[in-house]
């Protein structure tokens, strides 16, 4: 089989090379220097990105690791991909960086063409986009858009009243109405204030931060293997949908739900999956109660699940109202299909930059590259290969709840401590992976990850379990 990755990265290493402990002395010293001015307690090690290439990350101590974590799922095409380097060095890019426009007031002459490159690869039926700075920011804009739309519906698009205008200045009703965004337990939608009130994955994200009083509903806890527990899983999903609808109804008199937000796979919360039928149920319930449906594809978007956008695999009878994106897109924002979500007055959705034209240029190149090279098909093939390789470790009792779509794969270790020992042990053997949830390991390789890379990973897994 010819290797597309080898053509793109002819000098990519053939295997990891570990020269020191990870983190090594240079990584530790660099973190110490960084922390003189910048908090860096979460750093695993320090990367040398000028030397990293393809599927391999090189650290400050010269260790070369096969990277299945890829900057928390945000590098789509490998390190130092030539196509991205070319786009980064273009005159268009230089213009965007040197003269960064205040897009809301002074969009650049080429901004329309940049936006069209994004919309070309949007999910079907989503001709509109709003750009943002990060995944959290994208979700904040989507929430705000939902609130604005609901308010317009309630006042039947009438002009603002004097009472609404004056009360908004003191954070009071009716100008600041009581409304909410409903999210699911174990969800993660970001760390900014509105997004954090919908995040429910780990206490460390939320402790000490004031939060909105917003509702939550259960996300299905599926039993694996799926094919052996279809009846129980169907019942679990129906239970969660029933509670979702009951919660929306109950909150109508307390803080009406403007939108329901959901991840196709609850990533930070433990790589929790649900069936297309469950997501169709959410779509049906939200339409029934005039609640907007937001799909958060910040982590699942741009190919990793074997579809360009994960929710495309659901075959919904009608699309979501908004879909947020970031990470592998290297920019952020949300796509939407209904022009009524477009605020009628200027400055309703607004800030100085409204995203970053430089990263929009990169996103356009990424989207084009993924589509033209049919990388989603490769991801489906390689993902199947990885899961088949991991299955023997599950059958031997080393791991459990093996799950995933495409190369968006996870499995569980017996305890949180065992998971942490596993990820640290993998790094020591030259493979960089990450954790999620309480005791899960998540794989987030780039889209050019191939069977030869999977074999290296699976060999490291075998070594870890043979100790």
From TrEMBL:
Catalytic activity: 4-aminobutanoate + 2-oxoglutarate = succinate semialdehyde + L-glutamate
Enzyme's top EC category: transferase
One of the protein's GO biological processes: gamma-aminobutyric acid catabolic process
Highest taxon of the lineage: Eukaryota
GO molecular function, one term: 4-aminobutyrate:2-oxoglutarate transaminase activity
Gene3D superfamilies xref list: Aspartate Aminotransferase, domain 1 (3.90.1150.10), Type I PLP-dependent aspartate aminotransferase-like (Major domain) (3.40.640.10)
Record EC number: 2.6.1.19
Cofactor(s) needed for function: pyridoxal 5'-phosphate
Sorted UniProt keywords: Aminotransferase, Pyridoxal phosphate, Transferase
GO cellular component term, pick one: mitochondrion
Signal peptide per UniProt: none
Region of interest called Disordered, as start-end residue ranges on this chain: 1-26
Listed PANTHER family: 4-AMINOBUTYRATE AMINOTRANSFERASE, MITOCHONDRIAL, AMINOTRANSFERASE
Similarity comment: Belongs to the class-III pyridoxal-phosphate-dependent aminotransferase family.
Subunit and interaction comment: Homodimer and homotetramer.
Name by which UniProt lists this protein: 4-aminobutyrate aminotransferase
Species annotation: Starmerella bacillaris (Yeast)
